[in-house]
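Summary: Need help interpreting a holo structure output

Steps to reproduce:
1. Submit the protein chain below together with the SMILES for shikimate-3-phosphate.
2. Request a joint structure prediction with the ligand placed.
3. Inspect the structure token block that comes back.

Expected: a single structure record containing both the chain and the bound molecule.
Actual: see attached output.

Input attached:
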Amino acid sequence: MVQSQTVSASRGLRGEITVPGDKSISHRSVMFGSLAKGVTRVSGFLQGEDNLSTVKAFRAMGVTIDQPGDGELVIHGLGVHSLQEPADVLDCGNSGTTIRLMSGLLAGQSFFSVLTGDQYLRKRPMGRIVAPLAGMGASIRGRQQGQYAPLAIDGQQLKATSYQSPVASAQVKSAVLLAGLYADGVTTVYEPHLSRDHSERMLRHFGVEVTSFDGGVSLAGGQELTARDLLVPGDISSAAFFMVAGLIVPDSELLIKNVGINPTRCGVIDILKKMNGSIELVNEREMAGEPVADLLVKSSDLKGIEIGGEDVPRAIDEFPVISVAAACAEGTTVIRDAKELRVKETDRIAAMADVLSTFGVTVTTAEDGMTVQGAERLQGGRVNSCGDHRIAMSSAIAALRADGDVVIEDTQCTATSFPNFWQLLGTVTV
Ligand SMILES: O=C(O)C1=C[C@@H](OP(=O)(O)O)[C@@H](O)[C@H](O)C1
Ligand SMILES: C=C(OP(=O)(O)O)C(=O)O
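--- attached output ---
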């Protein structure tokens, strides 16, 4: 049954919260832990649906993964050449990260595998990974000449590549690097702007030599991974909903604890600060090769700004909620260079333009972004998430500032990345 949620205006957000573990790092912990030799203990693992798809896929390839407690995994890795042919199709659900990274990994195995996903994932572009992997000798077939899943992968001996990616995408970069682990020679990926570097950091954590340089990254094939414990920080993409909520709702003061602030991910903090948002980083520290801090957020009078260039990949999943901040800011916000938003779980430019216009906000869209006119007041109404977790949660945050109740339809998708979102929102809103 399709679920919905009704959200009313808030008189302030107060208290301390901890958001669930980082989705990108959680995926990689399962993948790299499964390839490592030895036992990897993960804590802070995100038990969202996307990550559970990754766990299921590795179990289907013979890896023993125990879940002794909430957010805990024990992965019994047997080395880079230990995976077994899965007996059935691997279902990646809604998760772009799962299907794209696993395609790179499976391209170099000595077995056959098929990857698919839900109705949203089967519409997302796969040619962006199929093309560079084919250049390494991979045999991958998919619908419409390899553009769309299901993808059928006939594992091959791969050769190293030097690939110039046309998009700043960590999924493309990581897929090619994972294939590169199985290739003869040194694989290099160049990208137009630096995308999130969790793969590079975690591979190093597991003892792989990875060289990052201005414009790209390279690694030599044939390296082994050695198991090491991992602590997953809170997901900045999940924290972003509460950052914006704390800024736009008057009389708010919120401490969001234990948030990953990797420089390739913290564009949302820089953008919101540029909008005059009060966000203070306290207790900065490092956890398993990733920087972490607590974020103190206070209600602020936001102002419109221009956003584009290298800030875009550093905040790519946060644009739906950044557009909510823009709707509550004084003046105009222009978002450019963000065409990638059109190929996420939904077309997030079109979806947010729809949502914000229901709230009474004036939005114009462009192929690569949108212009949002800040509004004095938001109005209530009925919106639909289109099955996209980030659209559902962004709508909920806008509703905290609306004059009337907001009904959000199709809200079960929040379990993709933030299973306790509604409960947490309830605990901090006055
Ligand atoms: O590598 C990752 O974990 C991710 C990379 C990004 O996608 P792209 O690589 O398509 O930019 C991001 O949108 C996604 O949520 C997670
Ligand atoms: C785009 C996202 O994830 P993925 O690409 O892994 O589906 C997201 O979480 O916003």
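--- end attachment ---

Reviewer comment: The chain has two domains: 4-21+234-428, 23-231. The domain at 23-231 is CATH 3.65.10.10 (UDP-n-acetylglucosamine1-carboxyvinyl-transferase; Chain).
Status: needs-info
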